[in-house]
Amino acid sequence: xxxxxxxxxLDRARSRQRDLALALNCARVVxxxxxxxxxxxxxxxxxSSMFSxxxxxxxxxxxxxxxxxxxxxxxxxxxxxGNTGALSTVAAQVEKIKGRFHLQGVVLVGDPGMLSDPDxxxxxxxR
Length: 127
Description:
Radius of gyration: 17 Å
Largest sheet: none
Order of helices and strands: HHHHHHHH
Shape: globular
Number of strands: 0
Distance between the termini: 28 Å
Helix content: 40-55%
Strand content: under 5%
Structural class: mainly alpha
Number of helices: 8
């Protein structure tokens, strides 16, 4: 995550909140759990020491989440039925997110099959 520059996307200056947010995101990728479960089991891996958040408590994690949201980094999630084609959802979601958060560009994370459809070129290029 550090090599990908995700830390700088959250904030250019290192802080306790940024470290906690990074650790939570990394934990979500490595072993998806609730934030509470992640906090309670943080001693079971080296993840907390990698991000220097060994003393993370539920209150500190909550504070990091408030910081993350309050710093103008909204997160939007919307699920659609599994049998819904990407073409009918992705382009519309890009426009919806851009409008809702007044953004010029959007980065989407999805599985390769969802985002590889040639008909999605306009959504991928930001048009």
